[in-house]
Amino acid sequence: MDPKGQRVKLNDGHFIPVLGFGTAETKEVAKSEALEVTKFAIEVGFRHIDCAYVYQNEEQVGQAIQSKISDGTVKREDIFYTSKLWCTFLRPELVRPALEKSLKNLQLDYVDLYIIHFPLAMKPGEELFPKDENGKLIGDLVDLCHMWEALEKCKDAGLTKSIGVSNFNHKQLEKILNKPGLKYKPVCNQVECHPYLNQSKLLDFCKSHDIVLVAYGALGSQRVKEWVNLSLPVLLEDPVLSAIAKKHKQTPALVALRYQIQRGVVVLAKSYNKKRIKENIQVFDFELTPEDMKAIDGLNRNIRYYEFLIGVGHPEYPFSEEY
Predict the structure, then answer these.
(1) Please, are residues 23 and 270 in contact by the beta-carbon 8 Å criterion?
(2) What is the predicted pLDDT for the residue at 31?
(3) Which of 212, 226, 265, 297 is paired with 323 by a 20 to 30 Å CA distance?
(4) What is the Cα–Cα distance from 53 to 86, expressed in whole angstroms?
């Protein structure tokens, strides 16, 4: 079952389910778990699966999708699968081979959405995070518009149905939107978004260009020190969210997910806990009042959990801009 058929139309005519299952894993999670939990997520009703080359688990996630197709739970066209182009493959000639590598790992003929994971080009090669002897990231200079043209070719070749971006600020989006000879607009911009970083300015900008905002980190963050500033407050312990959750007899996590859906944001729920995966699909079973929405809007404090500090100093580091 597609949860209540909740999908939104992208600017290229395809549809994306408003609730997605995030498969990013931490070091603590074994790859075999990605297979198990993705199968489970599909069983309980998730139809939108968000993954990426850099998570290094596309093989397992692909196996989960194949097994749910072969046992008749879903057909390929019921699944909306997103993959992401990693920073070491942003040179135009490396884009299609990178997508083909993901497709091979997944055992799929096409992905539904292929997005640029981060606007920061890094030195091409096997290393996912190429660093110099001082531990500083080795960048690469690639024009955003040239990367985009390579993605457009992947869409024309039928390797992906839709193309978009992730972690772009509005100026970087504008570069692509204003590109002479633009063939396809990005359908989405996937960014960190939650009540402590509600991205209202970026959301307005995206809506004005018919670009869907997709929220990752919608529940705050998993406390992984490599990626996250651990000194920040824990979103799901927020008293306002907790009070609203109590009132609706829901969890703070469900309130945080519902908040995004009601403001027109496609939201990813990442969990490797079966009980919570099953719970997250209940986001369609209740509605927040306009007062609830206003109270949650009031929690915004520009707290970014995923700062990607390793990229600071790169000319395309996106988070120095206000939005």
Answers:
(1) yes
(2) 79
(3) 226
(4) 6
